[in-house]
Each structure stands twice: as C-alpha cells, then as structure tokens.
C-alpha cells in the first residue's frame, strides 16, 4: 500500500501541475482508492457477496475568485487531462466569490503524525461468510421467541486517501475499517419486535465476536417484546448512549460554519456564551491512535489539533472550513469533512445510577424520523425504549413521540453516564434531560 500511496501522490501532483499550466491561479485535488468486501446472510444462507475496487479523483481550480470542479473515476492520463480541462472551463462561467480559494498556506499539515489508522487483513470471502453465519446462528439459538432474522452483514475496507494543493502540499495515508452486524426479529403473543447489535473497528481483530453480536442482538430484541404505549406526559428522559450521540450531532450542525453564515442555526451568535450546564465539557482529540474519527489533516489539508469545544458549558469554538471562516471573518478550524473524536465529559454515574437519577420517566433506546429544525431548535421525533419507575425498568414502550427545544434540552442536561459509546465520532455516555414532552395515548 505504500507504493499505491506514492503512485496516487504522483497522480495528484501531475493534475495540479497541469492545472497550473492551463492557467489556474490555485488548485486542489483529492484522490482515493478503496478495496473492500461486503457479505450478507439471511437465515444462515448467504445472500450477497460484493467486492469493491474503487478509485476516483476530484479537482477544484480557481481563476482568481472563480471556481470550477470536476471529478473522474477513470484514472487514465487522457481522462485526468480531460477532467482538469473541464474544471478550468467550468471556472470561466462561475461568478466571483471573495470567500473562495484554498485554506491559508500557513495552516497546511506539512508535518503530520502517523495515527495507526491502517490495519490490513486479507479480504477473505470464506472468513466473512463464517462471521455472518456465526452471528445469525448465535442469535437464533438464544430463545425460541427469536423467530426470524433480518440478516447479518460483514464489511471490510482498506484504502488510501491523498490530498494536494498548489501550496506545495501533497500528503496522504492508508486506512482500514471493519464492521459486523446482526438484526433479528422476535415474536410473543402476536407482538413482533426487531433490534440489532454491531461492532466496528479500524482493527479487525478487535471486533466483538460474531457469537457475542448475535447474542446481543437477540437479547435486545427480547427486551422489547410486549412493548406498550404510555399516557401523554412530561417527564425526565434518559437517552441511552447509543442514541445520545445523535443529540450532539444536532449540536454539531448548529455550530458548523455553513449553518452560521446562512443564519440558519438556533445557536447563531452564541460563541463565548453558555449553551450547556456549567459543569459540561466537550473535547476534540483528532490524533487518537486508530480512532474511528482520527485524521492528521482535514479535507483542505489543514492540520488537525486538540480543541476544547465547550468548557464549563461555554461554547469556545465554531466548526469552520476555510470558506465558512471567510464568510464569518474568522479562521478555519480544520473541520472540512467533519469532526474528529469528540469526548463528552461524564458525571460519573453507572448505568444503574443513571436510572436511579431518572427516577420515573422514559429511557429512550431508539429514535425515528427527522423532526428536528436546526433554525429554531424545535425537536420532535418518534421514539421507543422503556418506562422506568423509581429507578427500575418496568416495561418496553413504543409508538411514542418526544418533543422539546434543543436549546432548552442542552441546557437542561442533568447527568452524563460514565459508560461511553465508543463506536463513532462522538464518545458519550447516556444523557439525562430534566424534562421533555412525551406524546402517547
């Protein structure tokens, strides 16, 4: 793969040189190559086996403040030349934009760390098939009420990513990602429920075993059987850690440059203001070794760095690309392409202690629908989970809606559980919110 990395860097350098020869004042290009395998099964029979060997290059050129972009999956010299010419041609017809252009040269990641993102294995079809069959077998053997399967899936991807621009920056790295999941259906007294379990890691040897994933999927499904509705009420709501990261996804959207310069965020003009409880911290750590959201530089070549996004509940940082930063008359924060490993400070409670703190209310384990307005902060989503009384789970619930306003929800977070969800870009424990409207019967 090191040879492939060098070859891709050479291609990127060639197209940047060609863009300059064609009259571009600035140019940037990114290219990736990915090999992968995806295998799925249903009821212990193989459904699909897919191999991928994809590559593509995208280039953006600037003529002063005019911008043109083009991309190609054909990496032949003739196709690359045509792609550059098309980008140049497009730039001639676009309007000038004073905020367009590369990120500042001084911010480039000319010297960046190896983050151990690459853990290659052989893309073995037989191994993948054994994994999915073992996961389903394990799930279906847990309990007779697990009556059906919606399938198991195994995915493995290894690849190379390179970004270069006319600042003389041309860098890339290899990475890998593996996942295994299982979805099963349970039935009891005419009630059918479905749930799943999954594991994801940069290192295939660190995935949960297929047997464990199958057992977890089955148990999660069994726990949901006999679900009821609840009466409409206003109660404390505990977002299980698996769905709690979604709350911070809305927060990320609200403090991202695109939402801010378009004035379409409920957190407009909140930099330096209290947006969360005074004990609340959010830290970003882009250089965690083998982290799922680790990256030495962003999609514009800007070096990533540790940041304290929120301290004592105060918003320290917007999330900016070079374009949105110029729109807001600020500096890019290295967030072109997204965030890099957020860690949400917890308040130390175990899962059981979080239920005790909830008291009587709703534990949410699944969210449905897209009823979130980032402009106003209004929040309304379908939900399922468990009704809790006196800190003890009583029964599963479904077909309910929870509603509130994100600005109030964030400020009224009571506690963050000590056990974090680690399978994504936001690592957070379960989140307890003081009160929300629950609509049921």
From TrEMBL:
Protein name: Metalloprotease PmbA
Residue stretches making up the Metalloprotease TldD/E C-terminal domain: 232-440
Domain Metalloprotease TldD/E central: start-end pairs: 118-225
EC code(s) of this entry: 3.4.24.-
Keywords: Hydrolase, Metalloprotease, Protease
Protein origin, superkingdom: Bacteria
Family per record: Belongs to the peptidase U62 family.
Domain Metalloprotease TldD/E N-terminal positions: 27-91
Organism: Paraglaciecola algarum
Pfam families xref list: PmbA_TldD_1st, PmbA_TldD_2nd, PmbA_TldD_3rd
GO molecular function, one term: metallopeptidase activity
Lineage, broadest ranks: Bacteria, Pseudomonadati, Pseudomonadota, Gammaproteobacteria, Alteromonadales
Record-linked InterPro entries: Metalloprtase-TldD/E_C (IPR045569), Metalloprtase-TldD/E_cen_dom (IPR045570), Metalloprtase-TldD/E_N (IPR002510), PmbA (IPR047657), TldD/PmbA_N (IPR035068), TldD/PmbA_sf (IPR036059)
